[in-house]
Amino acid sequence: MTAAWRAALGLFVLAALALAPARAQPTHIAPKLVAESPAPAPGGETAIALAMTPEKGWHGYWTNGGDAGFGLRVKWNAPEGVTISPFRYPVPEPLILFGMMNHVYEHPYALLAEVKVDDGVVPGTDLTLSGVADWLACTDKVCVPERAVVSVALRAGDGAVTEASRARFDAWRAALPQPLDRAGRWERRGDRLRFAVPLPASTALSDPHLFVETPRLADYAAPQSFSRNGSDLIIETRANGDAAGEVDALLKLADGRGLSIRFDPGAVPPAGEPVAGATDGFDLALFGTALGGAILGGLILNLMPCVFPILSLKALSLARSGGAARVAKVEALAYAAGAVLTALLLGAVLLGLRAAGEQVGWAFQLQHPLSVLVLLLLAVAITLNLAGVYELPSFGGGQALAAREGTAGGFWTGALAAFVATPCSGPLLGAALGATLVLPVWAALPVFGGLGLGLALPFLAIGFVPALRGRLPRPGPWMATFRKWMAVPMGLTAAALAWLLWRQAGGGAALIYPAIAVAMIVILLWHMGSVQHGDGRRWLLAAPGLLLLGSVAGAAAELTPSQRGHAAAGSAFSDAALARARASGKPVFVYFTADWCLSCKANEAGAIERDAVQAAFDKAGVVTLVGDWTNGDPAITRTLAAHGRNSVPLYLWYAPGTADPEILPQILTPTLLTGRAKAE
């Protein structure tokens, strides 16, 4: 079917639909108008969302519906002093039916707009919004124009937003395309439309598609080719009409992410190397590189202060057992199984959340204070165990290693090592985990498993290489002393987690339940040690145990991530802040960090916040922006993904006049940063 015939058929369908009477309720796509804050402040604004929920088999349309669809329109009845911006649409999906291209949503989606309230509006004024919405609902066989009255109760107030509402709107915002901070170029050559998108080569692409918003320009159903020429992504397709001036479009990237782009008329470079991510093919080289980087990165994690004591204790348990080959192999395999399965589980949850539309990355479980509290309690328990306050089979005598308890102990110790290592993203690991954004799920999961394998490699080597096992020191009284010394780094880990919890929760009353939980686990385990030594009564364990459970339950209800300020070394990152900084013509340094990221904090203390570096930055006029990912941030997650990362740290350097940033190494030095500043 030619483009002309498709256009004629599309116009016929739209004309027929326009003459059809609007349906009364019920509709096949249920609309619901909600506000982020029910009490917008005079002089401020709040977001509203029109949440659309299609019935199974039905779909709605993007603002440019394609060959035969159209987007949603609302005729507002707004109170005086209230202004409503146009709706912003999430990233759609292409759908070809009967040779016609449709730009659709086959799942629940939400359109977002901003509501501004004049500063002259009196607090307490009723600002209820209502309007008549019209849209098109279709299946693969029939289309129905639908209409509904939508409304939301608002009253001028203090602009307060609940955590639940903020999380809900953040999820909807995550589905919106992000504006590209510079314009692309477009041209027509004969019957071909050609676009150049200034996009970093590191940007993840998986089955991309260009949705042209400007009508009567592109043949929507025609194939699109994607290639790369230097810093430009070249897109070619067939033209269907002509246009002059600017062209608006949306580029779908991967995992439901997209970029809204303005194209100016201009010369487009020739097509270059085809983009691998633009096909469904499997990139074997990328998989091999990512798997190798994950294994090596996991190996490096053993040097972290929260993992090294666990590895050391498992080695000591082998030494205590006399280095028996069978015991060593069984224990090593159990430890590796725990580490690999935990890494696989965390990776599967991460991929599942991303597939569901959540903007999350590696170490996502540490972005909520309740998870940090659980990890804090574990760290306290391990510290007390290392200090000899009480005993557990996992760290007990060598006799237990030959029994089932030793195998179980090895498994759970490996699982714990993998879990506590997740905040760390050292050399090789960031790029390796970033590759999971573009690999298919069946290939991404082994990369996560490779991290766990790398973490377990030292203990596997001890278990299966007799020469290494023979170098283990002989059992003796020194082992008890060494074990107690290992309580020091683990105690420091517990202190760091307590600091992180204070930073996340904001201090004050929010920390009452966590403080009680820590006190109760100390009392519980201290008394457990007394019982084990025959100096205590077992029934006295009940009271601190119940208080521990109660305080954890109370913390689960009370702990919520607090609002974060930016770091002292720079201003808070946002897309708008980055655009303003780049427009200033000054060099821009952007770094993404989190309080739970050890390598991030090491780089900040050892390089970024050094006086010499800050003086060089001041002299060169460098604008520093800080993306704080401690409590999670969908905008930061999208930015990380756009540069091939799903973890921190990430360091970007924007030189004046350049289109793409330079991705700096994950290990920074003062010389590296001062050198960049002096070069400007």
TrEMBL record:
The chain crosses the membrane at residues 284-311, 332-356, 368-390, 411-435, 441-465, 485-502, 508-527, 539-557. GO terms for molecular function: protein-disulfide reductase activity. Gene3D superfamilies: Glutaredoxin. Residues 547-680 form the Thioredoxin domain. The keyword ATP-binding does not apply. It comes from the Bacteria. Keywords: Membrane, Signal, Transmembrane, Transmembrane helix. SUPFAM superfamilies: Thioredoxin-like. One of its GO terms (biological process) is cell redox homeostasis. InterPro entries: DsbD_gamma, DsbDN, Thioredoxin-like_sf, Thioredoxin_domain. CDD domains: DsbDgamma. Residues 1-24 form the signal peptide. This is Thiol:disulfide interchange protein.
